[in-house]
Amino acid sequence: MKSYRKELWFETKTRRQLINITPSVEECLAESGVKEGLLLCNAMHITSSVFINDDESGLHQDFEVWLEKLAPEHPHSQYRHNGFEDNADAHLKRTIMGREVVVAISGGRLDFGPWEQIFYGEFDGKRRKRLLIKIIGD
After folding, report:
1. Neighbours of 130 (CB within 10 A)
2. Relative to the CA of 125, which of 2, 39, 44, 90 has its CA 20 to 30 Å away?
3. According to DSSP H, which parts of 4-133 are helical?
4. How far apart are CA 91 and CA 54, in angstroms?
5. What local confidence, expressed as pLDDT, does residue 84 receive?
6. Strand ranges inside the chain, DSSP E
7. Is 47 helix (H, G, I), strand (E, B) or coil?
């Protein structure tokens, strides 16, 4: 069995951003040489997320509006966490959107359903953060 590990780094210019990382993940899969197995992709920071969904701009705007209704950034004083920080909303948004995805690998490709893509969700950006790609299989 083969095992592959790689970290991808991000530094967004804005506090919140969704990034389609599918091409980068596919590059990792090609580097791994794994044809049959599993791929784990997980955010290594508590205010960022990895999830699978459609790459459609209207949907991304819907995510932003929905998440902001569920965990609004302002006022910062509404959160007990926000004593020395102002990112409690980012922690909550990450919990909603998820920490990681696992994707089957079949025939050397990500075994996706129609329209599925992998996204990195940043909810407290403007600083360097990383995610982990771990691939195991034959």
Report:
1. 13
2. 39
3. 22-32, 57-70, 88-97
4. 23
5. 86
6. 2-10, 17-20, 37-43, 48-53, 100-106, 109-110, 117-122, 129-137
7. coil
Judge whether 99 and 28 are in contact, CB under 8 Å.
Answer: no
* Cα–Cα dist 80/76, whole Å: 9
> How far apart are the C-alpha atoms of 121 and 100, rounded to whole Å?
11
All domains of the chain in start order, with CATH? 2-137 (2.60.120.460)
- The residue count of the chain comes to 138
Chain-centroid distance of CA 38 in Å reads: 17
Structure tokens at 46: 């508590």
This prediction's pTM: 0.96
Peptide bond into 75 cis (omega under 30): yes
Contact 38, 75 (CB under 8 A): no
Look up residue 49 and give its two tokens. Answer: 């997320």
